[in-house]
Write a structure and sequence with these properties.
Chain lengths: ~450, ~450
Amino acid sequence: MPPPACPPVPAGLELFTDLYELRMARAYRALGMDRQEAVFSLFVRRLPRNRNYLLACGVEDLLDTLEGLRFGPESLAYLRSLGEFPEEFLRWLAGFRFTGAVRAVPEGTPVFAEEPILEVVAPVAEAQLIETLAMNQVGVQTLLASKAARVVAAAAGRPVVDFGSRRAQGVDAAVAGARAFHLAGVAATSNLLAGARYGIPVAGTMAHSFVQAFDSEAEAFRAYVRLYPETILLVDTYDTLAGVRRVVALAAELGDAFRVRGVRLDSGDLLALSREARAILDAAGLRQVQIFASGGLDEERIAALLAAGAPIDAFGVGTDMSVSADAPALDLAYKLTAYAGAGRTKLSPGKRILPGRKQVFRRFRDGLAEGDTIARAEEPPLPGEPLLVPVMRDGRRLRPRPPLAQARAETAARIAALPARLRGLGAADPPYPVAISEALAAHEREVRARVAS
Amino acid sequence: MPPPACPPVPAGLELFTDLYELRMARAYRALGMDRQEAVFSLFVRRLPRNRNYLLACGVEDLLDTLEGLRFGPESLAYLRSLGEFPEEFLRWLAGFRFTGAVRAVPEGTPVFAEEPILEVVAPVAEAQLIETLAMNQVGVQTLLASKAARVVAAAAGRPVVDFGSRRAQGVDAAVAGARAFHLAGVAATSNLLAGARYGIPVAGTMAHSFVQAFDSEAEAFRAYVRLYPETILLVDTYDTLAGVRRVVALAAELGDAFRVRGVRLDSGDLLALSREARAILDAAGLRQVQIFASGGLDEERIAALLAAGAPIDAFGVGTDMSVSADAPALDLAYKLTAYAGAGRTKLSPGKRILPGRKQVFRRFRDGLAEGDTIARAEEPPLPGEPLLVPVMRDGRRLRPRPPLAQARAETAARIAALPARLRGLGAADPPYPVAISEALAAHEREVRARVAS
């Protein structure tokens, strides 16, 4: 079934760039520098708190966008209205297409500080223009996938459903986020646009408003079950345990026709309520009726509930996952690392840039990752798996977008191959070791000495 | 100059809803309830930490979307593919348009916990379907406008420029956020799509990459100034104060042709560096060259810099403002408060719903707000300004979107009319008083007693 004809990002996206990118592009062009080859590297400077690793995501949407990026007449008219760009430059923009090469780690690859998530090799004016898009898209999707991986780990095999669209920071974060969550192991999303666009399983139960619209909760349950016999019933509108007892009464009323899959607890003390609900259901012989919990959940609360033995079978997670509440932004950078064939860096404090084109080698022992080395792309391969692979050349994808189900399975395998101390919620001790190769370290010294002179 | 032909939100947005909304809509229809009148209220249950008030935003984009919301053939095909919706319901969706009425507080109105930002009166199935959109859009824009108001307050009259698009949570958050920031008092945005779509002033300087691409910083400055004589020069790529001295040298070189407006400090100790930069510039007779600071700024850091006397003339603020880092989500709710003419509520702990249609009256003394009362919409008007005004009837706007500049000026006046203790960064003591009218309290008691029975 084809997805609806909606682009991954709104029309006019060629303008989703910062004014300074266009000013610099125009300057490069005026100075005859625009065709010089530049290397830009997209990486995270340091991991946010509460993250032992990040899960790379967003590259596939970015590649689709790069392939289609054109400056339409309305965008050009807007730029002309700013009164600072010469007609020659606007004509160049009218013919713009991204012609660069991209190497990237596959989506769902765990990455660490300073490791390139992607590297762009392109004429400098082109590589510059895509900075805002690349950072924004890879940033938000990596942020959200990384958060979801923690929630999924906390749920310890129980399904997690994304309920976050209402509280996500905008439409794009909700839809791209639903995909990032699914990649990271979330079972389903409530968001139909994400379901349609990416083929993610969709899920949903009922809202309080439905119960409220009836004169009694019992009547609301009866009506809903008639239409959705296998639904999950939301029981906390008035009194959670009374709601559970109404489900028991409904089971008695319906006999063999009772096929309700579960009850959903959405407020109150979820540990106590889940135990009491389980006891009530079991006493009524309704062992097959599952308990679904939601309401203010994040990975810490899920872990605490399960550690205390809460008999919860599945979790609905919204707000905290949808905005990565404990770490709502990444210290992401998109930096020039080479220009016209020579390595580049800067010396600003706290803002290291590893020069040149790079590769990351991940070493495994007994199936578990034991350390990475960031190396020069040009040096002889080091031991381990090279993480960056070519994904675009001359502005064209080298392969179609992998099916999401396949990417999701590979992601699960990559996470499972991390040392156990990284997969837990606490700070990994020791942190995962990431080294710099001797050749890269020597190149960095050389470039720093050159630019400092 | 017309904005580019890009919708405020991507095509396919009719699917930006949660599966349960459609399940309930179908149930209402199957049960013959779908045309019953429902009242839904959108409000924040409690203010997030570090917020003395919220700045309502997002209603204008929502109204545009509601006017145009239609289920296209591809969306219907997707819904059909889910295999659970009868053809009769899909036909109803094919003819769907939002026919409801909306009352809302004007964008840029300070609001408090439990005060309706908007109320929808519509056939229940329609009001239900728009929940996800309404919460997502009003939520993110209110969140971001509220954060920006703090940053603007901290800057104490100095211009603040939005540099957040690269770190915002997605394209929509960046673009709608730029508008929310501007409404709240931010002077300009770096984002061209936001500039084009909403007519926001755009600003930008240069990136480190431009400096890095040259063999020397002096050469990079010289080249850039030739094209952009009045630019702000980024001086921290290698050594901030050496960069400032290069600007001084450039001034000597160019003589009367030197028109550089400022230097930008983007890393390091901004207090010490701004003082030293100011001293260097002043000693060279360049008092007119301003100091622009950016890099990891938020309202607290800006306030601390200015309290310490940092000679900074303008601020570029990115990450922390663009994701509202200290409070990245609102405890927003969209709740059924009346159905078929009767008030509704729920009794879940910590999730109060004030029943019925409501109005908020804000009382002023000597031009300053001194307290609000949330009242029934039906009761005789209380003293003060009624905040909710009709903005949509029969699914059509009652007036066009107000010009952003006008909305921005009105917002500034509304913020200025808050008591001073609310406008500072610290917790307002005492908090702003919000009362419930006697008639509303009585109605709440009556509805709670009814549903508890």
